[in-house]
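User: As part of a screening pipeline, I want to sanity-check one entry by hand. Below is the sequence and the SMILES for adenosine-5'-diphosphate. Please return the complex as structure tokens so I can compare it with the automated output.
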Amino acid sequence: MYVLEKAPAKINLTLDVLYKRPDQYHEIEMIMTTVDLADRLEFFLLQEDKVEIVSENRFVPNDERNLAYRAAKLLKERFQIEHGVKIKIDKQIPVAAGLAGGSSDAAATFRGLNRLWELNLSTEELANLGAEVGSDVSFCVYNSTALAKGRGETIVELPAPPKCWVVLAKPVQGVSTQSVYQSLVLDDIDHPDTKGMVNAIKQSDYLGVCNRLKNVLETVTLSMNPEVAQIKEQMIRSGADAVLMSGSGPTVFGLVQQESRADRIYNSLRGFCEEVYVVRLLGSHQKLD
Ligand SMILES: C[C@@](CO)(OP(=O)(O)O)[C@H](O)COP(=O)(O)OP(=O)(O)OC[C@H]1O[C@@H](n2ccc(N)nc2=O)[C@H](O)[C@@H]1O
Ligand SMILES: Nc1ncnc2c1ncn2[C@@H]1O[C@H](COP(=O)(O)OP(=O)(O)O)[C@@H](O)[C@H]1O
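Assistant: Here is the complex for your manual check:
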């Protein structure tokens, strides 16, 4: 038996940090949505009692460091599954980029194995299990647009934002999510208008969304990686309606409504940035191609 799942990348339309918690995580409020850049995961039922990860991408670990591996192990143990699984990951999302590629692979594994192993778990149950693997996994299980609270695992679904094109550009040098959170100065935060962003999304107000893009981790990553600022400036110069860094970075995204403008930004970045993508904003559950 065999099952296929798509694992789309996410971008942060807002990211606010409220305070540091006793468990060392940060209490956050952020609005995330999905874009049409996705890994493809194939799940093959094995009779042997093992989880096997196969990927041609050298940055994707094939052991317990892989979040898809951890998701599969968690389901196996929690539901005492005697079968095994081989998971083939066709990696399209850049790794360690602020696009939640690993978390989305874990979420796709929860959805895929729920079908392969016929567990009949609800999306909410899968999202709760996801929180045990990583803060962003619950959002990725829903695979839509949402306000995420807590350490990221408390999800309130939202409608899809207005349709637009998204240009993604990833600087060469990655950043560690943990070190970005650790370097944030908490009493010096200019908070995003999260409620205003929720309303703009609900009203399908494209300019309202553009005007409220804000991520409080951006200044931290900017100070570690000057390429982030260079890419932001270049995107604005070549016609993006709004630009922001996603998550802890370093990927920057720009929003535009016309495809021709997205192509112009893409072409203007190709000279000095190796990883540039033009994709559509998805924002709601998508079927496989
Ligand atoms: C910044 C965000 C925004 O979407 O995404 P990415 O940049 O990773 O895509 C997330 O908060 C990242 O989520 P995720 O990458 O799943 O985080 P985890 O594996 O749970 O945690 C990695 C480390 O980040 C820090 N962390 C994470 C979440 C949180 N609310 N507070 C934190 O302080 C902790 O130091 C933790 O050890
Ligand atoms: N399935 C996976 N795909 C990519 N990276 C993974 C995966 N599982 C674990 N990782 C590890 O997680 C780290 C963060 O990767 P990723 O999820 O792509 O980035 P981010 O958290 O910035 O969105 C990487 O250093 C990588 O080694």
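Points to compare against the pipeline: The chain has two domains: 2-158, 165-280. Residues 49 and 84 are 5 Å apart (CA to CA).
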